[in-house]
């Protein structure tokens, strides 16, 4: 702890500890992507469950996930433990729980009746989502506590984003390339049931390893961060919980960022859950070609993190966020054009490189900046209320976007049935493949445009945040002098 700059004005932490903290997001990226990228395809094309049932199961699981996020954040905020602090016990429970439930998710017998397979999927995905919440919400809150420096927060989130994108890459690129190799029995590798079994085991092991790295790297900060200022009356916890949620959602500054984050994640939900359908059936790409495209996009996102840190320092966070949204809209238009020209480019991954590179750079900023902005909003709230509620704030943030994701996924499930997607066919009808591509392209454009409009009302900048922090320090100094 001696090498930690621990003053309330500009608390910074060593780079090695930022990396240790950020490594936990590798577990988050792996667990989210293995479910987000493959589950709908696995259920429809491998298990043969109707798309509407799959959409219903996944949608309900996300509603459950959304509701439990702010609850987990609140309980994390009021947790008291000399050994584990407010956050660290949940890192252990969540990491181990994700690994176990994720393993069982990818080992369901395809020969079972549909209603049995649906029941297993529904119960297991609820369990996976629950343990994700137990890990992710306290983990995200921990990142906001590590530093109160305006630009340092963006750096922490940038490193955290790099690990998240590496987790996505491991699943989407390396996983696709290794586990879904074509065989004589399965020329289309992503239709091989055994590949999903192996991927489930591998991803579960990775989740546990990096959750433990994060826990051990940040454990020394527990004495510094375990500072809940107000003791909670257990008999009144429901009233306190409701009051906390009401205060957060009445904060207009929070709503501007939260709705922006929510809308950008609609595009992520579309790409994650029908992207594999579109690349496989609309553009007739192999698993290796898909891995190359996704790999370029994620690699550019990773490499863009230092650039977004610099852009944020030069322009400030809101203008940088707007720039990221404009770039993503441009990438979505490129993708839409490729859908319209699919007959000329199908089977060739090279045409997708400009889309992947431009989209990767744009989304790089959208991963990092909103979470850094929420940390600033928490400062604003602390000045007003006298307490910090990182867990509850980040829980409420995910509540909003996950509700939207659940609606999006429910619609995707029904749309797969409406457009007559047939898992038994290697080649889908012309109308089916075109509509799937248009849904992804147009839906992404609309989601990014809505995010841009939502962010218009956000007013915080570096100067205002630093003024808020100075006022907080003055209040704390006055309290300490009165003690």
UniProtKB/TrEMBL annotation:
InterPro entries: MFS_2, MFS_trans_sf. GO terms for cellular component: plasma membrane. One of its GO terms (molecular function) is symporter activity. Keywords: Membrane, Transmembrane, Transmembrane helix. SUPFAM superfamilies: MFS general substrate transporter. Pfam families: MFS_2. The chain crosses the membrane at residues 39-67, 88-108, 120-142, 162-180, 200-218, 256-284, 290-311, 323-341, 353-378, 399-421, 433-458. It comes from the Bacteria. GO terms for biological process: carbohydrate transport. Gene3D superfamilies: MFS general substrate transporter like domains. This is Na+/melibiose symporter-like transporter.
């Amino acid at each position: 702890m001696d090498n930690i700059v621990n003053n309330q004005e500009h608390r910074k932490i060593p780079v090695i500890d930022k990396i240790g903290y950020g490594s936990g997001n590798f577990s988050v990226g792996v667990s989210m992507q293995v479910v987000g990228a493959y589950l709908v395809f696995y259920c429809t094309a491998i298990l043969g469950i109707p798309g509407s049932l799959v959409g219903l199961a996944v949608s309900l699981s996300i509603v459950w996930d959304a509701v439990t996020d702010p609850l987990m954040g609140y309980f994390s905020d009021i947790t008291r433990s000399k050994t584990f602090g407010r956050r660290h016990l949940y890192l252990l429970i969540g990491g181990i729980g994700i690994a176990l439930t994720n393993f069982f998710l990818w080992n369901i017998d395809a020969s079972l009746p549909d209603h049995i397979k649906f029941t297993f999927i529904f119960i297991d995905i609820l369990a996976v989502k629950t343990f994700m919440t137990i890990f992710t919400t306290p983990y995200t809150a921990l990142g906001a506590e590590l530093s109160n420096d305006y630009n340092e927060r963006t750096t922490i989130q940038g490193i955290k984003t790099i690990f998240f994108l590496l987790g996505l890459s491991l699943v989407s690129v390396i996983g696709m390339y290794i586990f879904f190799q074509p065989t004589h029995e399965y020329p289309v590798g992503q239709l091989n049931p055994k590949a999903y079994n192996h991927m489930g085991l591998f991803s579960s092991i990775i989740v546990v390893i990096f959750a433990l790295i994060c826990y051990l790297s940040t454990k020394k900060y527990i004495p510094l961060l375990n500072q809940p200022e107000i003791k909670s009356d257990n008999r009144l916890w429901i009233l306190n919980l409701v009051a906390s949620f009401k205060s957060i959602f009445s904060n207009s500054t929070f709503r501007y960022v939260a709705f922006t984050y929510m809308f950008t994640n609609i595009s992520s939900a579309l790409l994650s859950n029908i992207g594999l359908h579109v690349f496989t059936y609309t553009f007739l790409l192999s698993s290796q070609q898909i891995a190359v495209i996704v790999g370029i996009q994620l690699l550019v996102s990773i490499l863009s993190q230092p650039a977004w840190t610099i852009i944020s320092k030069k322009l400030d966070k809101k203008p940088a966020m707007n720039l990221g949204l404009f770039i993503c809209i441009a990438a979505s238009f490129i993708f839409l054009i490729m859908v319209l020209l699919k007959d000329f480019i199908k089977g060739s991954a090279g045409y997708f490189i400009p889309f992947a590179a431009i989209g990767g750079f744009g989304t790089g900023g959208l991963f990092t900046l909103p979470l850094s902005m929420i940390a600033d909003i928490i400062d604003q709230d602390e000045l007003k209320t006298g307490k910090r509620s990182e867990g509850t704030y980040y829980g409420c943030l995910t509540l909003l976007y996950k509700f939207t994701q659940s609606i999006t996924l429910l619609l995707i499930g029904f749309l797969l049935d409406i457009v007559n997607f047939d898992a038994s066919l290697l080649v889908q009808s012309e109308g089916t493949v075109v509509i799937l591509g248009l849904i992804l392209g147009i839906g992404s454009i609309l989601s990014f445009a809505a995010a841009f409009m939502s962010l218009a009302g956000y007013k915080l900048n570096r100067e205002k945040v630093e003024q808020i922090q100075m006022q907080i320090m003055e209040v704390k100094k006055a309290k300490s002098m009165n003690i």
